[in-house]
Each structure stands twice: as structure tokens, then as C-alpha cells.
Amino acid sequence: MKSMTVTPPSDNRIAQLIDANLDRAREGLRVMEDWCRFGLQRSDFSIQIKNWRQQLGVHHHNIYRKARLTSKDPAMGVSHPFQKVRSTPEAIFIANSSRVQEALRVIEEFTRITDPKLCEIATKIRYESYEIEMKVLNTKEGVIKRQKLKGCGIYLITTYKKDLEGIVLQALKAGVKIVQYREKFLNDNEKISQAKCLSSLCKKYNSLFIVNDRIDIALAVDADGIHLGQEDIPTKIARELLGSEKIIGRSTHCLEDIKNAENEGCDYIGIGPIFPSETKAQLEPIGIDYLSKGFSETLLPAFAIGGINSSNINKLNHIDNLRIAVSDAIINSNDPFSKTEELLKFLT
Question: Which of 32, 35, 75, 96 has the highest local Cβ count within 10 Å?
Fold first, then answer.
């Protein structure tokens, strides 16, 4: 690409403000870069922001630096009260992102004729910064979801029931913090309607709402994530469709499945079936010893699943940090609230 000529501004004050806004943009980008690197541990974000900073540095020409105001700057050291109320890293990130965008806009306006290449770069970075700002905000949402996931003891999996909403409500009131919507009989319109209702209930009780298999329904109702079986869509494609902030879980039936889920970037796993299960009648139970081994060999939040109820849960009492996934034990209980309380009491 042919280089564009840089013409010194005829008014030295323009060179001064270009210099000041290049400094302002690069300083703001450094704050953003470091939070992505150290706070979010997102090398992809930090590398992109660093590249923007370097591009601006290359075009921070001496004609701007030589015009720099220091002690004669009438606004030097002036602060604003709002700067003192940025109490979170995210607030600091957004403030600096806005600072960068404002500085780049100034650069664009004053370099269109004299420095068209810098104008082009400033425009490109400004628009791209809007996108990365949203990605960082979504990453924060993902962090909150994953922290909540770690604190879940009982994972409720739904099945077809006439009063499903009422049953789930009782379980939520009793303390369930994650619900998976699994429905094999209703048509798609009915599923979406019911999923929206259950998602709303979960939000009301600060609980996670996961959809089984159907990414389209998960997106339609803005679910917190998706649960996939071994024969479902690959994790990589699911992540591309859902975004980084959503939770992805995977059913596992052996140690190889567990390691694959970890390597693929799943957020949690189900291990089972532990006992014979009506939901997965075609699968042979893996047994308690295998469950213990699976729990000990993964760092992911793991839920024991398959036929677990109040009659056999005592067989799992030797497993540290036990989490369980249940369906029939609560959904078909005569008293979902009391049954949930009973299972939670065992876990604690």
C-alpha cells in the first residue's frame, strides 16, 4: 500500500492537540490492555489492544511531539469528581475505553487532510474498540455465571410435567441454584414459551438456567448456557454460537470423556449414570468407584448424575465436595420443596 504524506499542521495548536490526544489514547489503551491481561487473563484481548497502541505509536510523529505543551498547559492536573467513584475494575476499563474513543475522534477530525493515514487508523481502532468493550462486559457476565456455578449443590433437570413451572418454583424456593430445561415432547413454540417462563423464575431466584441440547432455544430465551451430550454439537462450534459469557456443560461416561471436556473448554461436566436411571435407561451405570475417580481427576465443577434419590444418596457420602444432578427425585416428588431441602441438607 502506498504511504500517505504527512503535512505539518499550519496551526501549531492543532499539532499540540493531536499530540495530547495520541498520548491520551495510548495511555487509555495501556490501562485496558493490562486489565485484559492480568484481570481477565484474556491474551486475545490484550494482544489486540497492544497492537492498537503500537499502531498509534508508529504514527506519533515528531511534528506532534515537538509541539507538546507541558507546564504551559492550562488544563494540566485538572480532575473530575466522577473519577473518584470508579470502584470496580470494570468501571475503570469502561472509563478508559471511553477516553480512548473520545481521543481518537479528536484525532480523526484534525488529521483528515494533513495526516490521512493516522486518521484512517484512528477511525478503525475507534470502531473496533466498541466491539471489544462489549466483549469485556460479556466476559464479566461469564465470570459471575461461573462463580455461581461453583456454588451449586443440586442441579435440577426437568422432564415433562403438567405443573412443571410450579414444581421448579418450589425447588428454587428451597435452594436450587441451577435448572436444566430438558423437554422431549412439546413442539418448539411450546418449548420456547415454557423455557421463557422457567428462565424468568430462575432469574428471580438468582439461579442459573441451562437448556439441554438446543442452542437455538437457549439463544431465543437468553439462557445462561447449554448442556450437551456426547453425540451433540462439538464444544468449539457451541462456543462460537453462544459466545464466551455462556456456560457449556457436557455429559461424560468415562475418564476419556472427562479429559476431552476439560480440553475443549467446557465449564462443567455431568458424570454418570451412577445408578440405573429411567431418563438414560440405555446407559449402563458406571458405579460409585468410577465416580470417585472421575471427581478426583477433574478440576471442573462435576455433578454426579443418574438415578440419585434420597434412598441411595447415602452411598455417596464419602465423596468430598459432592454435587448431584437429579430429575425424578424432585420432579415426581409429592412435595418438591421438602424433597429439595432434604437433598440439600445431605450435601451440607
Answer: 32
Q: CB-hemisphere CA count at 13 Å for 219?
A: 9
Cα-only R_g, the chain = 27
In the DSSP assignment, the letter for residue 5 is P
266 vs 263: CA distance, rounded Å: 8
Where are the CATH 1.20.1260 domain residues in the chain?
A: 12-145
Catalytic residue among 53, 214, 250, 280: 280
| Cell reading at 182 | 430438558
Q: Which residues pair with 212 in a beta bridge?
A: 227
Kindly tell me the burial class for residue 243, based on how many C-beta atoms sit within 10 Å of its own C-beta (0-12, 13-18, 19 or more).
middle
- 180 forms bridges with which residues in the sheet? 157, 210
CATH code of domain 151-347: 3.20.20.70
37, 117, 173, 182: the active-site residue: 182
Choosing from 251, 277, 327, 333, which is the catalytic residue? 251
- 251 part of the active site: yes
pTM: 0.70
Domain 12-145 CATH class label:
mainly alpha
Active site residue 182: yes
The answer to whether 146 is a known catalytic residue is no
Per-residue pLDDT of the chain (348 residues; tens, 9 = 90+): 455 678 889 899 999 999 999 999 999 999 999 999 988 878 888 999 999 999 999 999 999 999 987 655 555 555 555 555 556 888 899 999 999 999 999 999 999 999 999 999 999 999 999 999 988 887 878 888 999 999 999 999 999 999 999 999 999 999 999 999 999 999 999 999 999 999 999 999 999 999 999 999 999 999 999 999 999 999 999 999 998 889 999 999 999 999 999 999 899 999 999 998 766 666 788 989 999 999 999 999 999 999 999 999 999 988 988 999 999 999 999 999 999 999 999 998
CATH 3.20.20.70: which residues of the chain?
A: 151-347
